[in-house]
Specification:
The chain is an alpha/beta fold and about 350 residues long. It has twelve helices and twelve strands. Strand 9, helix 10 and strand 10 (about 245-250) form a beta-alpha-beta unit.
Amino acid sequence: MAHVVLDMNDQRPVWARPDWFAAELREALPDDWTLAVLDTPTEGTGDGTARAHPAVLEAVADARIYMGFGIAEDVLRAGPDIGWVHTGSAGVGSSITPTLRERAPVFTNSAGIHGPPMAEAVLGMILHFSRGFDFAVRNQARGRWDTDPFYAAEAPIRELSTMTVGVLGLGGIGTEVAVRLRCLGARVVGLKRTAGPGPEGVEVGVGEAGLARLLEESDVVVVTAPDTPETRGLLDASAFARMKRGAVLVNVARGKIVVEDALVDALRSGHLRGAGLDVFAREPLGPESPLWAMERVLVTPHVSPVTDGFWRREADLVLHNLACFLDHRVEAMRNRVDVDAGY
């Protein structure tokens, strides 16, 4: 008897697994397969959990498929027959362990599932600065009717159709961002790891030359790349120096891509107009961080993926991949993770 273990009972209410998700999964399984639905609480923040509940280790003993938020090494050790791992997170860094590399199951993630809400969060952050909402929030907090920041000769109030936005990482999330920006008239310059076409109307670059062009030409730089050894610390003091004076940084990807001290310096000097940040090198962001008190910084607590649309898209992805796995068509499975590339 083959088994599927569903370990996606996120303790955060907005991410709680709906009953219909398990029902659709059970309906899609062959008659001689069983589904173990675990109600033990798990944590889908970031890349997922690092250690499994004892009930999970017991359940995977004869499992062929494990679905959770990331996968801990002890789960793979306890489930020697696991041939497919699916994570409900987009990030996979903490799951790429020596045991995962050695066992080499099919590994899929939820990249792109979070794309629509994250893209809308990016648009909100861009508009926050381009329409001067940061001035309005500051005035409201002080009880002041102050039009000077809006009426000044050099007021940083812009229309999207006059702006160039650089999207650093044209995966599922970056593509959703780019498509929306293009619909609103912005010029979009994107950066990919490998050469190839991007979304319609997006100017795509690769490598150092592509990064240099993106930094130098963009009024807003949006970070949607995964956290890998190549991207960690990519946006440092030299990168900020290459950005336009008055440019805005938006980061909804991973905090470690940005060198935060260098970002603070670029904001304090006035070189950057502002920063919209949903992710940080350390989370929660500590109370000692200067980012909290900076008027030209918008801080959100890693909530850009929050949506009520997650589980429907997740179900469609999982059911497609389940059909492929059962039919021995692994090559047709979506969102297969390249453990060497880190995404």
